[in-house]
């Protein structure tokens, strides 16, 4: 055991004990301790935790216990609860967090007290975290918390047992004094079992001098010292149980406790009251912060902020409440907006009713996206309007970038290599009307760009131009010559052409196909 002031000691009771009481909030944490099963036929004279039960004023009763299958069960007010992986569930003034599998749960109470329970095959470990303002109000096996290790073991009668007492005195004169009575128990019991089933005040554990630990089994001692190092609690558990794995569980738990102490130097956020009459809320937890979103049922109006947040222990407000809506009405409001849509929620224009606004594609909403009729008969804000959005502008063979301010959008233009800009390199759009003050520029091919491109590819531009020109002139001259000769021949002997035509027509029927082709060739 490690007390709230950091004093280490051993206690191996057999029964149910008060681990922690916080008087100012009525918080009780109880633990059930049972002997380990016999090992190699040898009765082990040590006990371990197998269940924890806890509650505070106004909260549900939470019980976390081993279920015999290597996992943990969570019982709330006597009813077994099932949890999904890594699930957070709110109960009355207490929140349960399941971490990954069925072997680790955290119970965080409205007061800020948190209990982390972790299960292993045959035993459980626990860690308690609590706000510092509960100092000097604690008792139980976790001791009196006042940062003074000289007065640690507070007894139920209000006196203190000397902190330097040996393990036997701590067992009989302190630990057993915190055994619970049947009427005080927070645990539930299966059929045929009761508080008495788990109580054996005559159980005789092994008593060890923590400052001078001696192992009869030297092989076990070597294993223990190799596994435990300087952890006295680990060495004790190995000596008492003969199992280094149990010792390592204790060692790791103490290390985790120290890490938690280091982390919790930063103030944590205490959850708000889970009861929210006539309304509902959503809650989001992140590292170091909690945020609540509140809404009321129909016919009720929210009194207070709809969003309340906490960061590193500091809340920005308190939880609101839901009040009945009175007959007072707000002024009528236009439920249609130009270039947009509006829809109402609740009975307009009574208190608590709401109008939600949304703009069409290409328009931006200016103002609140919803307005609520308040209890005093006024709207939460003015009706918004839809403003045309500045359209995107692009240019061929160029690029566009934008800078935006509250009232303007500026488009900046650049041309790609080989092109020059014609026009302004930037234009302005006025957000109030969504129009550009000028047309975008254009990117035109720069002078000498083609020649430069051809030269870069190894061509002789001038030689190609001359060659192409000469070729075209030669082809044109040949075409003119052919046409001229053809016309001249046709017109030189018209009589002969007529006779030949007549002869061809009369002889056509006597000529074969091949012969006709020959005649045509000849006359051509």
Automatic annotation (TrEMBL):
**Disulfide bond in keyword set:** yes
Enumerate the Gene3D superfamilies for this protein.
Complement Module, domain 1
Q: Which InterPro entries match?
A: C8-3_MUC4 (IPR056619), Epithelial_Barrier/Signaling (IPR051495), Sushi/SCR/CCP_sf (IPR035976), Sushi_SCR_CCP_dom (IPR000436), VWF_type-D (IPR001846)
Q: Pfam families recorded for this chain?
A: C8-3_MUC4 (PF23263), Sushi (PF00084), VWD (PF00094)
PROSITE patterns linked to this entry:
SUSHI, VWFD
Q: What is its main location?
A: membrane
Cellular location of this protein?
Membrane
Q: Which residues cross the membrane?
A: 463-487
Alphabetical list of CDD domains matching this protein = CCP (cd00033)
Q: Which residue pairs form cystines in this protein?
A: 330-373, 359-386
Supply the alphabetized keyword list. Answer: Disulfide bond, Membrane, Sushi, Transmembrane, Transmembrane helix
What range(s) does the Sushi domain occupy? 267-324, 328-388, 391-445
- Domain VWFD, first and last residues per copy: 1-186
SUPFAM superfamilies (UniProt xref): Complement control module/SCR domain (SSF57535)
What GO cellular component entries does it have? Answer: membrane
Its recorded name reads Sushi domain-containing protein 2-like
Species of origin reads Actinia tenebrosa
User: Lineage of the source organism?
Assistant: Eukaryota, Metazoa, Cnidaria, Anthozoa, Hexacorallia
Q: Which gene is this protein's source?
A: LOC116308059
């Amino acid at each position: 055991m490690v007390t709230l002031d950091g004093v280490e000691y051993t206690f191996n009771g057999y029964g149910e004990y008060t681990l922690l009481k916080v008087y100012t909030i009525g918080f009780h944490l109880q633990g059930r301790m049972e002997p380990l099963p016999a090992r190699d036929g040898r009765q082990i004279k040590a006990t371990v935790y197998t269940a924890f039960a806890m509650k505070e004023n106004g909260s549900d009763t939470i019980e976390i216990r081993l279920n015999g299958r290597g996992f943990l069960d969570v019982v709330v007010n006597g009813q077994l609860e099932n949890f999904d992986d890594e699930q957070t569930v709110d109960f009355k003034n207490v929140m349960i967090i399941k971490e990954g599998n069925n072997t680790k749960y955290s119970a965080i109470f409205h007061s800020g007290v948190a209990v982390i329970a972790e299960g292993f095959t045959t035993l459980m470990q626990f860690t308690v975290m609590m706000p510092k303002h509960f100092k000097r109000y604690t008792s139980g096996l976790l001791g009196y918390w006042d940062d003074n290790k000289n007065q640690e073991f507070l007894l139920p009668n209000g006196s203190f047992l000397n902190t330097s007492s040996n393990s036997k005195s701590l067992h009989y004169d302190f630990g057993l004094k915190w055994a619970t009575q049947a009427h005080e128990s927070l645990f539930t019991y299966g059929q045929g079992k009761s508080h008495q089933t788990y109580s054996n005040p005559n159980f005789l554990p092994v008593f060890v001098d923590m400052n001078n630990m001696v192992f009869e089994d030297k092989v076990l001692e070597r294993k223990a010292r190799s596994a435990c190092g300087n952890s006295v609690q680990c060495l004790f558990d190995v000596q008492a149980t003969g199992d280094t794995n149990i010792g390592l569980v204790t060692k790791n738990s103490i290390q985790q406790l120290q890490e938690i102490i280091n982390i919790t130097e930063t103030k944590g956020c205490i959850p708000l009251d889970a009861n929210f009459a006539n309304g509902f809320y959503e809650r989001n937890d992140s590292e170091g912060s909690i945020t609540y979103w509140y809404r009321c049922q129909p016919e009720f109006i929210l009194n207070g902020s709809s969003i309340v947040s906490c960061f590193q222990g500091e809340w920005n407000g308190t939880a609101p409440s839901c009040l009945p809506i009175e007959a007072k009405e707000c002024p009528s409001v236009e439920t249609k907006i130009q270039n947009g849509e509006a829809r109402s929620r609740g009975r307009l224009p009574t208190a608590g009713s709401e109008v939600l606004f949304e703009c069409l594609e290409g328009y931006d909403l200016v103002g609140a996206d919803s307005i609520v009729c308040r209890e005093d008969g006024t709207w939460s804000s003015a009706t918004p309007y839809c403003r045309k959005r500045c359209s995107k502008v692009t240019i061929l063979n160029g690029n566009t970038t934008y800078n935006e301010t509250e009232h303007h959008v500026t488009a900046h233009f650049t041309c790609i290599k080989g092109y020059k800009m014609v026009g302004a390199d930037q234009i302005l759009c006025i957000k109030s009307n969504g129009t550009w003050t000028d047309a975008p520029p254009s990117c035109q091919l720069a002078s000498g760009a083609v020649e430069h491109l051809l030269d870069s590819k190894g061509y002789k531009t001038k030689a190609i131009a001359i060659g192409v020109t000469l070729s075209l002139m030669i082809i044109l001259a040949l075409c003119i010559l052919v046409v001229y000769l053809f016309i001249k021949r046709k017109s030189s002997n018209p009589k002969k052409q007529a006779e030949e035509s007549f002869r061809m027509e009369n002889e056509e029927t006597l000529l074969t196909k091949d012969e006709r082709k020959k005649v045509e060739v000849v006359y051509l």
